[in-house]
Amino acid sequence: xxxxxxxxxxxLALLVIxxxxxxxxxxxxxxxxxxxxxxxxxxxxxxxFQTAAPWATPRVQEEFGTGLLVAPGHVLTSLxxxxxxxxxxxxxxxxxxxxxxxxxxxxGADCGLALLKLTDSATxxxxxxxxxxxxEQEAAPAESVDSDTxxxxxxxxxxxxxxxxxxxxxxxxxxxASGLEQRQLILTAIERDLIENSDIDxxxxxxxxxxxxxxxxxxxxxxxxxxxxxxxxxxxRSGPAYAIEVGVVKAFLAxxxxxxxxxxxxxxxxxxxxxxxxxxxxxxxxxxxxxVYIRRVDFRSPAWQRLEAGDILLSVNGAAVTQDAxxxxxxxxxxxxxxxxxxxxxxxxxxxKRGSRDLEIKIEARPFSGLSMARRRLEDRRRxxxxxxxxFQELDYDLIHDTSAGRDALLRHRYENFGHDRIGEAxxxxxxxxxxxxxxxxxxxxxxxxxxxxxxNGRRVRNLMDFAVEWKRTRGEYVVVEFLDHAxxxxxxxxxxxxxxxxxxxxxxxxxNGRVR
Length: 517
Known about the structure:
Layout: E1 14-17, H1 33-36, E2 39-48, E3 59-71, E4 74-78, H2 79-82, E5 85-91, E6 100-108, E7 113-118, E8 154-157, E9 170-176, E10 179-185, E11 187-193, E12 203-208, E13 223-226, E14 229-234, E15 242-245, H3 246-256, E16 269-272, H4 277-282, E17 292-297, E18 312-316, E19 319-320, E20 326-328, E21 334-336, H5 337-342, E22 346-354, E23 357-365, E24 383-387, E25 390-394, H6 397-402, H7 409-417, E26 431-436, E27 453-456, E28 459-460, H8 464-472, E29 478-483, E30 490-493, H9 497-508, E31 514-515
């Protein structure tokens, strides 16, 4: 845990400007009172599919969480709360207990945030008209939530030092069945970690001390406040509470304002802080505290063939990068390097040290999803190919995290290195034999569970659809499947497949769901 990075609270004490919206300002006093008037309760009903059994009937599940009104008819919340939602409802503050229907309008798979849009005809805000001149006021038609001129609150930072934060000044606010509640939180670190629904190793989180009085699950998607000002959005599902930083929230809302979310910029490299005087001397650096160590460059990313592992990144667009990966973003605000990049677009100038040389290079700041396999799917139905009782899927976040595939060393290696060690140059995505529905036709196939398909009928497999097409057009008497790290192939008699498929489908009550045929 990188507790020494806590000085980055400069990005925490964030002030929200009214932006011309009818509610007025979200700027709150130290009690955070006005912010609470924007907190809403969210109810979703979703389909929950089993990753290892995509052929099975999904479980229908109801969940409650919290959201934050950021524009008329629009609610910011956690993506994990609304992912796979088949219906959603919002209980507005100070309004009738009747919920308002909503739909998920924007999903930020790279940051773990989402926007809900109310789907009934109008917002709650009346508008004054010329009737004032006669002493009468007529209610003008309420603004449609489909307006092309949606306005979102803008966020600006205030300098602060996390070491000066009082233990009782951090609050999480959430909606429960009985109303709004709050919990005091103690910030323990700002650290890079895995966010559900987000890319691995890309986002810095606000991590809070675990305690019995921590926020309940219904707080998920609600605001975290520091001295009454928005610091982040609570996103924890289980375990210690964490929140997505407000700098990421700002970039997400700016991109989502036109309802066509492109994604946050990511240059395609991973980095580590440079700790210790000996390491700085070894790398030929002074004692000024600048520079981070580039440890990986993702294949075909904006930084690909521009940066190299071992480079020392010194500055971005003239802003120095500290050894703790902080960048001065102006107005006294320090942001993490990754968070700083999130809001950039277009050409970016990097200064770096490569061995004894000082270099200046340019890369494009843009969204990059080359490691999208390291992201939980947004679709509720998983694609799978099922024949002879054998279930094949593509390797992704869900397989690694939700099934026994995550314990397989070869799969783990290919998953973690697919996008930056050229493992994936020959294929679009690995195809894996995930499970076996027992049947006489597949006796002995159990040893291939969690194995990566290499070739079928002698032809290299590029993805699941490619695999299915080649399986179905088998010309010979046998289907021959070769797997990585297995000498012997899996061989099935083609003539036995139709009867076996009918038998398996009937016995296991196979649902179509995302089945590839």
